[in-house]
Amino acid sequence: MNLQLLIVLALILYIVPLVLWVILKRRRNHSAVEEESMMNWMSRQPGMKKENPALSRFYQRSYVRSAQIPVFRSQVHRIRQRLAVVSPYDELTLRKETMKITYAVLLIVIGLILALALLGRSIPVVLLGMIGCLVLNGMLIDLFVHRVENRLLKDFRDFLEDNRHQFQSARMADEAIYEASQLAGHDMRLHGERMHEVLTSKDPDRSLSAYYEVAPNRYLKVFTGIARMIMEYGDKTTAKGSLYLNAIGKFVQDINFDLLRRNRLSYQLNSLTIIALMPILLSFPLQRWAEKYFPIMGEFYEGRIGMASKLMLYAVAVAAYVLIRKLAETEESRYMPKSGGIRWEKKMYEYRAVQFVVDRFVPRKNTKAHYSLSKLIKESNSPLMIEWLTLRRLLLGLIAALFVTGMFVSAHVNQVHRIWNAPTYVKGGLMIGRIDGIERQEAECRSEFDRRIMNEIHAGRMGWEDTVRSLVRESGGTTLNEIQQNEAAMRIIEKLVKVNSEYLRWWELLIAAAAGTAAYFIPLGIMRFQRRIRGMEMQNEVDQFRMLISILSQFDRMSVQVILEWMERFAIIFKPALQRCLLDYDGGPARALAALKNEAPFPPFVRLVERLENALERITILEAFDDLEMEQEYYREQKKETMDRLIESKANWGRDIGFAPVMFMLGAYIIVPFLYVSFMQMRDLIAQLSRI
After folding, report:
1. Residues of the chain with pLDDT under 50
2. 3 state SS of 86
């Protein structure tokens, strides 16, 4: 009854939002006056989509109500922070977009819980689904925010095309940006107006620095900086025409490459995330089918090995999903500025007892282990300190050990319950095929008979086997013959022996400790995986450096330090190394560049740094990079080839990881159980033949 009530509640929670949405949509025809006022307001917002005013009011009221609910307050605040970084919405639009993503995530999560409830038909399955949905919650938020990010990038590309046309008419960068922003979509219009404010402010350099802190992607940062230099030094006529228009063309080309790469990665990897999670949903109907047509397989699924196989399948599926999401992430979303606030690791580490334990596991300073761990944290762009990371690893290991121990205890309890209550079928028959009602009723009668006898037996006493035989003769003397009485007594004795053997063993505690140890190293494995994925994208970033330097080298007043500052502003993978180089630059440019080559020994990047070294004293910046323009076609083809290799490499990794849960499910739920059934049937058959 509790399970049915849970399913009904989940169904109501899933259908009610859809019904409300339909009702609000139909109210459009009955609110003409309100719609007219809303349209008047929206007409003053260029590029903004016209939506149902009743639906907009619903989003605004939902935002206010959700701020009063403790469960949803942090969720809504988290989504709002992410959107505020990506796009400078006005307050009403920001609230509306926040609630759109919130409702989308809630509908998906409730739909998954409902599917698990209908397929699993047990409360533990629903609880497992809730835990999994907590994990998916953050990933779904990232997914929806990425859509906003990609939409902004497309709007910026169109904005650049309009800006080109306006600049050719006005020949002024600020006027061209303002006119192009009025033709852009709502999000890009806000960014364009912010750029215009930067260029026309009393202190443009200070305003530009402030904009660098809030710009959602590097293209907007660099374009605004280029426009600021054009405003200060004026446009320049090069061999290919206007410097400003040439820069716009290169930006458009690079953004097109980036959008193409994102679309192809999304096409290759998005379906794999569904494939990675499908085994979790398919495991429940597959288990019920196997138990229906091969009843003896129920012993396998309910036993320790079966439960371990289930948990391993869930772990493999979730791990595959996380890794595929890491493969599909783009640079801008992965390196999103971290939101403010105090981390829970920091607050927990402040307790003396916790600090004492964590410090015992933190590598000592000035050691190779400490240096390697620090380098791994930096290269994976993690916001954690070594102490916080160690605390997270210890907690993960402890939770894994306790979880595995609880799994073994639950398996023992479940096995005892199954011995006492499961239908008892006659041994000797090949239990393949569906069980009819008569056989099942006879099996349940045997279980009831065995239970009555077992309730009167204390297996720890001396001579309890003889007591079982005497009770069987007394209870079944009229209905069972002597052979059946002996078989029933042996069956009950075997059940009692199995019940007494169900306790936590030392090797199970050893397995739990091994699982905790493995979980302790999981965060490091994820960070190393992320570092390796970043290594695949180094060439792509070097190609973007070439595009940036080809623009900057055309300016007359350009120095190596300024180029390094622009590279640091544009960089993602090489950003930490460039930051340290700029910090050490005043102590000696040659020494700082040499250290930069040692810290980032990627050959194409090293060649760029060597050209900057030549430009320190020997030649000018333009002479050091004069071949960038001459070999532009070669670099374009090289970049296309690099992008193809990168996507193909990620796709291969994604296919291997995405199909791993499917292969594991085939082994854990089909091959191994069938081998188990075959072995059990063969053993019973041999025992039958030996008696004959």
Report:
1. 1, 3, 14, 24, 27-49, 331-341, 429-431
2. helix
> Tokens at residue 276, please?
């990675």
pLDDT the model gives residue 139: 64
Kindly state the helix (H) or strand (E) to which residue 238 belongs, with its residue range.
strand 237-238
* Cα torsion 501, 507, 509, 512: sign: negative
The alpha carbon of residue 215 and the mean position of all alpha carbons in its chain are separated, in whole angstroms, by: 24
**DSSP H or E segment with residue 241:** strand 241-242
Q: So what's the pLDDT on residue 39?
A: 39
**Hey, how many other C-beta atoms are within 10 angstroms of the C-beta on 597?**
18
Please state the length of the chain.
692
Q: Which residue shows structure tokens 């209550």?
A: 421
Residue 214, classified by CB atoms within 10 Å of its CB into exposed (0-12), middle (13-18) or buried (19+), is: middle
Q: How many CB atoms lie within 10 A of CB 39?
A: 11
Give the helix/strand (H/E) hosting 534: helix 506-536
Task: Say if residues 222 and 195 touch (Cβ distance below 8 Å).
Answer: no
Let me know: does 54 contact 24? Beta carbons within 8 Å: yes
Question: How far, in Å, CA of 297 to CA of 431, rounded?
Answer: 10
Tell me the two tokens of residue 7.
């399913």
Helix residue spans in 294-342 (DSSP H) = 297-302, 304-328, 331-334
Of 353, 356, 347, give the one whose Cα is nearest residue 388: 347
Residue pointed to by tokens 């397995």:
511
Phi, psi of 659 (to 5 degrees): -90, -5
Q: What are phi and psi of 238, to 5 degrees?
A: -105, -175
Please, what's the largest Cα pairwise distance for the chain? 112
Structure tokens at 44: 């003053």
CA pair distance 76, 412, nearest whole angstrom: 42
Q: Measure the CA–CA gap between 332 and 155, rounded to whole angstroms.
A: 16
Pair type for strands 241-242 and 237-238: antiparallel
Query: What is residue 311's predicted lDDT score, i.e. its pLDDT?
Result: 78
- Whether residue 251 contacts residue 219, with contact meaning beta carbons closer than 8 Å, is answered with yes
Rounded to the nearest 10 degrees, how much is the dihedral formed by the CA atoms of 243, 244, 247, 253? -120
Which pLDDT does position 5 carry in this prediction? 53
| Angle 270-276-280 from CA coordinates, rounded to 5° | 135
Tokens in use for 329?
């992430």
Sign of CA dihedral 43, 45, 48, 54: negative
Instruction: Specify the 3-state DSSP secondary structure of 97.
Output: helix
C-alpha–C-alpha distance, residues 157 and 163, integer Å: 10
SS3 state at 413: helix
- Res 99: pLDDT: 82
Element (H, E) at 64: helix 53-66
Q: What share of the chain is helix, strand, coil (3-state, %, to 5)?
A: 80, 0, 20
- C-alpha 320/C-alpha 274 separation (Å) is 10
Question: How many other CB atoms are found less than 10 A from the CB of residue 201?
Answer: 13
Using alpha carbons, select from 685, 687, 682, 680 the residue that is nearest to residue 297.
Answer: 680
Give dist(CA 38, CA 406) in Å, integer: 57
Predicted confidence at residue 119, as pLDDT, reads 64
Cα Rg, the chain, nearest whole Å: 33
End-to-end CA distance of the chain: 48
Tokens representing residue 18 in the block:
């859809």
Structure tokens at 73: 């307050």
pTM for this prediction: 0.65
What is the model's pLDDT at position 583? 92
CA–CA separation, 374 and 638 (whole Å): 34
